[in-house]
User: What shape does this take?
Amino acid sequence: MLVVVTVVLVVLVVAVVVAVVVAVVVVLEVVVVVVVVVVVVVGVVVVVVVMVVVIAELVVVLVVAVEVAVVVVVVVVVVEVVVVMVVVVVVVVVVAVVDVVVDVVVFFSCCITSNCSRICESNSRSSSYCCCSNNSSSKCSRGSSCCSRSSDGSACSYLFSRGV
Assistant: This one.
């Protein structure tokens, strides 16, 4: 009878030990599964975070590209405006210089070809004429005998029509 009890006790102890080992193994398996699930979740979170960072970087690159494009457009517009202004100023200056040169050349050529000894200045610029040396008392005005007899009467007429 003692042998039977001993065998039963040994079997019970072995059964308890096996049950404990099985329980520990089951617990370890659950822990491993939980760890694997946590690792997978963390991996998914990391992937999502990386994707968000990449998208944010792409947005930043696009914003910078748009800003650069805007700056380039503004610079091009400013350069075009400056070029147009410079061209306008150059044209105005050239026209003014040519006008003055033509007036001066025609005026003095009229005086020289009309044998004028000096320039008579009256109250205003528009009534300044050449004085003819052959008739110092008369002014070389449009339609006068002095201009009509001069070798360059057309130049005198041009000057008077220009208001020189």
Remarks:
- The CA atoms of residues 17 and 60 lie 63 Å apart.
- Strands lie at 116-120, 129-132, 139-140.
